[in-house]
Amino acid sequence: WERTEQKRRQAAQTRQDRETLRDAALRESRARQEELALAGEEELLQRLREQLQALKERERQLVKIRSAYELACTSRDERRRSYQQLEQRFLDAQAGLLAGRLADGEPCPVCGSVHHPAPAALLKRVPEKAELDRQKEALTEAENRVQQLSAQAGHIQDLLKQESGKLRQESRGLRGEDVKEERPAEEELTK
């Protein structure tokens, strides 16, 4: 009977040892899985940091381009005023030149009237056509610069929107949220 009892205790000890080993193997397996998950989260966190840095750099670019855009708009507006004033003086000078040739009783080459009660005066300083053309060209260049900067700012805003959406999406994975594709607001409204 003693042998039987001893064998039964040994069998119980063996079962307990097996369970302890099984539990230890299970804990070790879980620890490896947690270690792998932690390494994946660290990798994701590093990627998110890099994306955040790139996003901040993109925002700095946008601020810089917006500033350049505002300066370009101011320059364009000044060139436009300058050109319009010069053009008006040029046209007034042309009217003065035509008025200098008018004679009473003869028809005006512009309107055909034979009466000339208030002919235009000839300006002292008459702008040259070449000067007018140069200012027109400078105005066109200024307008093109404004359009170029506007397009650049729009492009960077689009990139910022895409990149911040991507960053938000990936950060959800770090917080343990389900990662789903976001639908544009237009799609939500059509439902």
Tell me what the structure shows.
- This protein is 79% helix and 0% strand.
- It is an all-alpha fold and 191 residues long.
- Helix 1 packs antiparallel against helix 2.
- The protein is rod-shaped and about 155 Å long.
Distance between the termini: 80 Å
Radius of gyration: 41 Å
* Protein structure class: mainly alpha
Which overall shape is indicated by the principal axes computed on the Cα atoms? rod-shaped
Mean pLDDT: 87
Sheet-strand content, in percent, reads: under 5%
N-to-C SSE series? HHH
Estimate percent helicity.
Answer: over 70%
Largest sheet: none
Number of DSSP strand runs: 0
Contiguous helical run count: 3
Spans of at least 5 consecutive residues whose pLDDT stays below 50 are 178-191
Q: What's the short version?
A:
The chain has 191 residues and is mostly helical. The protein has helices at residues 2-100, 129-174, 185-190.
Keywords:
single chain, 191 residues, mainly alpha, 3 helices, 79% helix, 0% strand, rod-shaped, disordered C terminus
